[in-house]
User: Fold this.
Amino acid sequence: MDRLMLTPVIRGAYLEAARAPVILLFDKDERSDLPELTLSGPGALWHGHGSAPAGAFDSDHRTYTAEERAAEDVVGKQAREALQALKDADGALPSGVRVPGYGSFFAGSTWDEADAARRGETAKLDVRVPAGREDTVRGRIALVTGGAQGFGAEIARGLADEGAFVIVADINADGAEAFADELNAGGPVRAASLAVDVSNEDSVRKMAGSVADIAGGLDLLVSNAGVLRAGSVLELPYRDFEFVTKINYSAFFLVVKHSSPTMIRQRTSCPSWTADIIQINSKSGLAGSNKNAAYAGGKFGGIGLVQSFAMELVEYGIKVNAVCPGNFFDGPLWSDPKKGLFIQYLNTGKVPGAKSIADVKAFYEAKVPMGRGCEGPDVLKAILYCIEQDYETGQAVPVTGGQIMLR
Ligand SMILES: NC(=O)c1ccc[n+]([C@@H]2O[C@H](COP(=O)([O-])OP(=O)(O)OC[C@H]3O[C@@H](n4cnc5c(N)ncnc54)[C@H](O)[C@@H]3O)[C@@H](O)[C@H]2O)c1
Assistant:
């Protein structure tokens, strides 16, 4: 059994025993000073199970069969019981365990606490049980694709400020790293970065594995990476249509396919644990967009995926929702001085009579009943709502200042 598959199972055992979120770090040394978490040969259990094809159980696998899930359930139950048995007389959990054949795992309420355990500075887990709404994402592990700039960066910053550990994944690897560094500057470690091309399956699979390696599991996937190539159906080259569709539509399938197994594995050892997948969709996923069919079509399709994934993954305690923002006028997509939509629309005369960027902006703001564009905190509130609300899934939540009203 692959370590990256075992890691979320061990984290789940901690979630179950602590009744609180934990970050889980790994060290390949089997540290003799740690209590042993005895699993009766997870490798043998996994590989000996049923008629699974050879090689199906390594981290390169592309299918995730019912047989694998059944085998993982057995390991999950073992891990849960084994960790419970390691509680001391006061009910405290060890902050680290040794798993023979794999290495050592270290838990903490924050990344810094887990790292202190890894350095041997603490022996008991300091549990912080969520107290209320302000703890909706505290200690939870979030992955934000396209998190280096724009809405993704706003969401990542907002989640980190709310106490989550955030993994910023972007095709712009340098930008993602610089942004994670900025989130960590002068304070606790609350972010990490990964390079990913969400439209490439190998890249997405590697990202999913790295997430388990960085923080031990995954509680929130924000599928945000997106692109826009506007144009008339009469003029837009098909390659542009395909480019937009691959990133805005097909890639959502890929990130869910490869990230949800981590969420499912956690649940084998913590059956009450829930996780969330949120697609950053658009108002253009709820109403057509003139001369912007590639974008709107992919976003409409995203709602279909959200509803379908929601129906399927509810069995594993995973809610799947879409957040549909209105135009983010202050973000780079609109405001970039060279490539932004404002300067493009000004130069191409798309807004009749507009003589400046301010005129173009005023034209679009006037379409919004609330008179302004959508901003990061507006989107963050909708995300927090989706997570906190445990009696809803498969929804598309508009955040458009009233520009789109659901029927
Ligand atoms: N900006 C808006 O007005 C607006 C409105 C509604 C919805 N949205 C949606 O919000 C999301 C973010 O949009 P934004 O305006 O912040 O865009 P943006 O262009 O500012 O940022 C997008 C980020 O995604 C990354 N990215 C692009 N292709 C990628 C790929 N293949 N793999 C990984 N990362 C990739 C980029 O490097 C960038 O960091 C998109 O899904 C978009 O459709 C945007």
Remarks:
- Strands lie at 23-27, 96-99, 103-108, 141-145, 165-170, 191-195, 220-223, 275-280, 318-325, 396-399.
- The pocket of nicotinamide-adenine-dinucleotide is lined by residues 145-146, 148-152, 170-172, 196-199, 224-227, 247, 280, 282, 325, 327-328, 331-334 (CB under 6 Å).
- Residues 238 and 376 are 32 Å apart (CA to CA).
